[in-house]
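Retro notes (design track)

What went well: tokenization of the new backbones is finally stable.
What didn't: we kept losing track of which sequence belonged to which structure.
Fix going forward: every design gets posted as structure first, then sequence, in one message. First example under the new rule, 528 residues:
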């Protein structure tokens, strides 16, 4: 019998839908009464938000497990369904030693109270307590995530964080979201992969890069108070290396030289702000956005992309952006170093996308004592690391910070790799289409069977087969549904994330330089 390679979801909230689309796994929403055998429902069952631990759900899930299915759920629901002991821990971060099945988990600050099962056996917190539980049950598999972890995806409080660099005494810092969404996404993604493999099945996802490429490169520019000559110098560098950057224009100081942006070819122009700050109310944000749009309209520019000043975000800003016709934004306060994800588009059917970027600029590296050659090494290592996690590489720069030689080296490496170079709008248009592309992927007799995807969707599947032994290299098979092309992808070599508790605690510890940076940031905002 053909087994559908998809996840069946009970309790498909917007939060879970956004996360599943980021991961790229095929999924289907089901009601508890429609849970049947794994070969009908799908081999992996996700119990998401709002699922009650009543008798009907308990019987359906237990029957599914006895039939050889796998279930992913959170600890409070697992405790209620199966009578397991539950306890609370106060965790600041999650990590994985090399022996952990979830290795290599990115540095994942959570700073939250989590509910975990007494018999948790993997994914440690900063006190070396296990938080994730794997259980064999009735012929099937349970994977239990800590309760409260998925709730962290709604976080947007900003804190200053250190960014790990191997073999350095000082780390660069930036004000970013208190919680690292990338780590939570990776944890769920790796969990699905483990469950499919434990059932002897391949793990299949929509590939995150256009045309089955090995990676994708984007570049963002925040123009804060830049001089015309600095803007022109950066633009010429982009022209030299054929980089279609996305420029977010701070309009108050640029009114006298807006023609520079209007004359740019092969670039995307977005709005950064008029006044360089965001506001607590929808009305204040709307007023600033409208003023900035009016300035850009004088030279015929009508942006649909936005990036908040200081990388900050709040729900009032989001509502103002949707009301103003924007379709995407990019803020450190909501996410960084991650794949795009959808936010609710208020009162209409349009998707509103958030595109996370890597938040460390050359200015941050300079303040951490990096030389220009060390900056180049940092970005090249980060490029490999992000690609290894199958994420878009999105760097950013302020024209006023100079040091263009650093990015000349980066662009040269991207060109050698042959990756697509795209603007925000180009990548997000492709991403939205790829998330909507439907295909039925089944497994029968050791073979994948696919149908349902039209050739114009150019859908590429990433297939990860169960490895015969743990030492086998991490290789993905890429299958194009538009052409007969099939090939392999192996992640590039990259420095591993911090795996020792002592290093993680050091990353969490705030030092005097961070307090000083926060004070300077506060003073800067007051002047705006």
């Amino acid at each position: 019998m053909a087994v559908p390679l998809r996840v069946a979801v009970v309790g498909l909230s917007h939060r879970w839908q956004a996360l599943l689309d980021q991961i790229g796994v095929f999924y289907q929403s089901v009601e508890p009464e429609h849970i049947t055998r794994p070969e009908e429902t799908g081999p992996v069952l996700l119990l998401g938000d709002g699922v009650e631990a009543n008798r009907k759900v308990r019987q359906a899930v237990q029957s599914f497990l006895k039939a050889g299915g796998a279930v992913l759920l959170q600890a409070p629901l697992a405790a209620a369904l199966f009578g397991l002991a539950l306890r609370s821990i106060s965790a600041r971060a999650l990590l994985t030693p090399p022996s952990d099945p979830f290795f290599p988990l990115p540095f994942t600050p959570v700073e939250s109270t989590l509910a975990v099962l007494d018999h948790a056996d993997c994914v440690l917190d900063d006190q070396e307590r296990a938080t994730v539980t794997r259980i064999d049950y009735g012929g099937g598999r349970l994977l239990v995530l800590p309760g409260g972890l998925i709730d962290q995806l709604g976080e947007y409080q900003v804190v200053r964080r250190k960014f790990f660099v191997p073999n350095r005494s000082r780390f660069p810092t930036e004000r970013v979201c208190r919680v690292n969404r990338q780590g939570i996404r990776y944890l769920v993604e790796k969990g699905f992969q483990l469950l499919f493999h434990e059932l002897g099945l391949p793990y299949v996802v929509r590939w995150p890069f256009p045309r089955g490429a090995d990676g994708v490169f984007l570049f963002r520019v925040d123009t804060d108070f830049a001089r015309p000559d600095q803007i022109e110098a950066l633009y010429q560098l982009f022209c030299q290396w054929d980089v279609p950057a996305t420029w977010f224009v701070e309009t108050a100081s640029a009114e006298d030289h807006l023609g520079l942006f209007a004359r740019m070819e092969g670039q995307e122009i977005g709005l950064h702000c008029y006044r360089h700050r965001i506001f607590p109310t929808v009305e204040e944000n709307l007023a600033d956005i409208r003023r900035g749009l009016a300035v850009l309209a004088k030279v015929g520019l009508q942006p649909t992309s936005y990036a908040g000043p200081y990388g900050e975000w709040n729900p009032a800003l989001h509502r103002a952006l949707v009301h103003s016709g924007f379709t995407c934004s990019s803020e450190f306060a909501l996410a960084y170093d991650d794949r795009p994800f959808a936010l609710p588009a208020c009162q209409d059917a349009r998707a509103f996308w958030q595109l996370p970027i890597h938040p460390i600029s050359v200015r941050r590296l300079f303040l951490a004592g990096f030389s220009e050659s060390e900056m180049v090494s940092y970005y090249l290592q980060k490029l490999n690391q992000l690609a290894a996690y199958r994420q878009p590489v999105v760097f950013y720069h302020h024209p006023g910070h100079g040091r263009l030689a650093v990015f000349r080296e980066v662009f040269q490496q991207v060109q050698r790799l042959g990756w697509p170079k795209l603007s925000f709008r180009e990548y997000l248009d492709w991403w939205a289409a790829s998330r909507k592309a439907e295909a039925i992927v089944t497994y029968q007799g050791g073979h994948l069977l696919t149908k349902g995807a039209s050739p114009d969707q150019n859908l590429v599947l990433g297939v990860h087969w169960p490895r015969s032994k743990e030492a086998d290299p991490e290789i993905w098979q890429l299958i194009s549904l538009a052409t007969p092309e099939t090939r392999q992808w192996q992640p590039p070599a990259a420095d591993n994330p911090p795996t020792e508790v002592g290093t993680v605690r050091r990353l969490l510890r705030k030092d005097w330089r961070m307090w000083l940076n926060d004070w300077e940031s506060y003073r800067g905002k007051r002047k705006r």
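Added context from the reviewer: The mean pLDDT is 93.
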